[in-house]
Every structure is written in C-alpha cells, then in structure tokens.
Design brief:
Number of strands: 33
Radius of gyration: 32 Å
Number of domains: 3
Distance between the termini: 114 Å
Strand content: over 45%
CATH topology of the largest domain: Immunoglobulin-like
Largest sheet: 6 strands, mixed
CATH class of the largest domain: Mainly Beta
Structural class: mainly beta
Length: 411
C-alpha cells in the first residue's frame, strides 16, 4: 500500500531568513515580517530516511562583528529514522577563500514524519552577502527557503588604527587630491645611462588623484607585504606609480619586516562626481571586493586644474651650456595644487659610437621634475633648464601640455 501523507509544518514564525525575523542592526523590535507561504511536505513511509530542510529564520541584515542568531527546522520525509546529524554551512558569498561556518542540526534518530528545530549562532566576521548551503545530509530543501543575510561594514575614521587580515596595523593619517604626481623610472626606461628620471602621471578632466597617507606597523613575527587587494575605493582605479617628492612612496608591494613601521601612500584615480560620497574600504576577507571596514573621506572644497597661459622657448640656435624654457602656468581650479612638469627630448640623428641614445626616441631629462605649488586663481612661472649636447639638432616637449619646439645647440 502506498502510504504518503501531506503535513503542514509547526510554528509559522519559522519563515525564510530574508523575509522574516529581526530587522537587523537598526534597533528595531524584531517583529518585522512579511507574509510567506508555509512549507508543506510529503512523507513517504515506503522510502528510506530522508531529511528535508523546511525553514531558516534569522535577521535580514546585521552589523560587522555581530552574532547572527536564528533557527532551522527540518523534517524526516522518509519511512525510516534518520541516522546521524546533518550540517548546514554558512558561506561568505563574496569570497571563496573564506572558511565557511558550520551549523549542526541534531537529527539523529528523527522518526518518520517528525520535525526538529535547532537554534544556531554564527559570527558575522566579514561584510557582504552570506548564505546557508545544505550538505548532502539533506534530501531536499523547501522552495520557500531563501536563507541569505547581509552583513553591513563597520564604520571607521581617519586616525583610527585598524588591523589588517595579515596582522599589520594600518592608520590613515591624511588625504589630499592632486591633478598629477611624478614618479621615478627605472634606469634604462626612457632614460640615458644610469640617470634617475621622473615621469608624470595626470588624470583626465573628470577624474582626480586621491593620495592617502598611511602608516603601517608590523607587530607580527614575520615579514609582511602590503597588498592593494586589502583596500578598495569604489568607482576608482588603483594607481601603481610611486609618489615621488613626498615622504615615502606608493605603499602597495612594500615589504615590512617584524617590528618595522613604514609610512607610504595609496593612490587612486577617482571620479570627481563621486567625491561627496567617497569611502576608503579595508578588506579582511581574501579575494573579496566588499569592504569590511569603511572610512568616510572628507570632501575637498575644490580641485586644482592647471592650464598653460604662456611659454617662452629658446631660439633655434642656442649658444652656451644651458637652454631655458619659461612656462606661465595658471591654476584655474578651485583649490591649490602641486604642479609638476618634466622635459622630454629626442634627436633625429643617429648617435655616435659612445652615445647611449637612439634616434627618434623620446627620453626624459634627468633634471626634472620641476614643481611648484600654485594657489587657486593664481599664475606661476616655472623654468625648465636643460644642457643639450652641442652641434646637434634637438626636439623638445613638455609634460604636461605637450608644447613642442626644435633648436640646435651650437658652440
């Protein structure tokens, strides 16, 4: 005889996690709920033991660091008693490298048609979306179960010391916005010989460079490397070049020995339109792009924006040891900024036997960068000085602005 029975679950409060339970970390009374169809099930007494998950209750969202509490309800829809307990994993959906947390359902010995409810507690130790995933111990999951929870990031502040996943302590001490930075080139990269030269990184008109001053302290017992993946600034792109002319360089990739303190910079190109809502995020979960700790960043009163007002270049025939270019640069933006410029040069003539340059290749002059801080609405004159080899025609240009000219150094 086919012995099957349809049975309604006990306790209608055991609704799905994303639809019922407490309202999260906003101080609600915990009674917010939405009408949800009750799960039903069919018991087949001719079948072996079969455990079905009926419901998972709990909060919709919690704050980072809180404990997530709730109940799970399961039923034996088979004809024989369940042998052994069952497990459910609480999985961080944002990072596959994060260890899941296990919830055990005490189902051992559960008879045919019997239900079991089990309370659980798991730690909200990473921000982002979490979900319950059943193991193979379960025969089925009711369609009404949508067991997800959102963990909201913790709010931090500049000046606060935060421990990274590596154990290194990080403190954001200052922030500035600049239109450009200068950074060092490695020897041989558009340089002549072993000279140290600098290139300029500038943003397009609708972006600005955010430069964060960060101090790292390694109190662990082993060397640690600062990874850019530990940090996130939404709607931005990470700038890998070092920030020359400042106290320290780009911190990403810096190796910090045990007991060492290092101050450097993290640099991002960010849209100007996003400045008012900009946050600096710290990730504690490997491979996650969701910030576990968010630090709101102060919105500036404006941005620097430089324009070339005038330029005086040498005559076509230059005598003496030096050639000077005078640029009048105006800051038409709303905030003071550090203007930076470099010389680039090339010659159409092939180099001699002992020369270290190639024809028609742009090289960067090692005497730069030429820098000056320009207040908003003001103009400054920047002189770029170079020492060209004599009896040879040279092509020169400036970065930024791309002003070009040609002259020949004569005895």
């Amino acid at each position: 005889m086919d012995r099957r029975t349809y049975i309604g679950t006990i306790g209608s409060s055991m609704a799905a996690l994303s639809l019922a339970g407490c309202s999260g970390s906003d101080g609600g009374d915990g009674n917010e709920s939405t009408s949800t169809p009750e799960p039903t099930y069919e018991v087949d007494q001719e079948a072996p033991a079969r455990l079905k998950l009926l419901s998972v209750s709990g909060p919709k969202e919690v704050a980072f660091g809180d404990t997530i509490k709730g109940d799970v309800t399961a039923v034996n829809v088979g004809g024989e008693p369940i042998s052994g307990d069952a497990t459910i994993e609480f999985v961080h959906s944002e990072s596959g490298a994060t260890e899941p947390q296990t919830v055990t359902v005490n189902a051992d010995g559960l008879k045919s048609g019997e239900e079991v409810s089990h309370s659980y507690r798991v730690d909200a130790n990473y921000a982002g979306a979490w979900a319950f995933e059943t193991s193979s111990d379960f025969y089925a999951v009711d369609d009404t179960v949508t067991s997800t929870v959102s963990v909201l990031p913790k709010q931090g502040s500049t000046g606060e010391t935060i421990e990274l996943a590596s154990g290194v302590q990080a403190t954001v001490s200052d922030m500035t916005y600049e239109q450009m930075i200068a950074y060092e080139l490695s020897p041989g990269e558009r340089t002549i010989g072993d000279n140290t030269a600098h290139a300029i990184r500038e943003t397009v008109s609708d972006n600005i460079l955010l430069i964060l001053s960060v101090t790292f302290e390694n109190g662990t017992g082993e060397a640690k490397t600062v990874s850019k993946d530990d940090f996130v600034v939404p709607e931005s792109s990470f700038v890998s070049e070092s920030a020359a002319g400042r106290d320290g360089t780009n911190a990403a990739g810096e190796n910090i020995n045990p007991g060492q303190t290092y101050s450097g910079h993290l640099i991002y190109a960010v849209p100007k339109a996003q400045i008012d809502d900009l946050t600096f995020g710290i990730n504690l979960a490997e491979g996650s792009a969701v910030a576990d700790i968010e630090i709101p960043l102060q919105s500036p009163g404006g941005f620097p924006e430089f324009e070339l007002a005038n330029i005086d270049v040498p005559p076509e025939d230059v005598t003496g040891d030096e050639a000077t270019v005078a640029m009048e640069v105006e800051n038409v933006g709303d905030s003071a900024g550090m203007f930076k410029s470099i010389f680039e040069f090339k010659t159409p003539e092939e180099s001699g036997l002992f020369a270290s340059y190639s024809a028609d290749t742009w090289y960067i002059d090692a005497d730069g960068p030429f820098t000056q801080r320009i207040p908003a609405g003001e103009t400054r004159t920047i002189e770029l000085v170079t020492e060209p080899d004599s009896d040879r025609r040279w092509d020169y240009r400036t970065t930024p602005f791309g002003a070009e000219w040609t002259f020949e150094a004569v005895e």
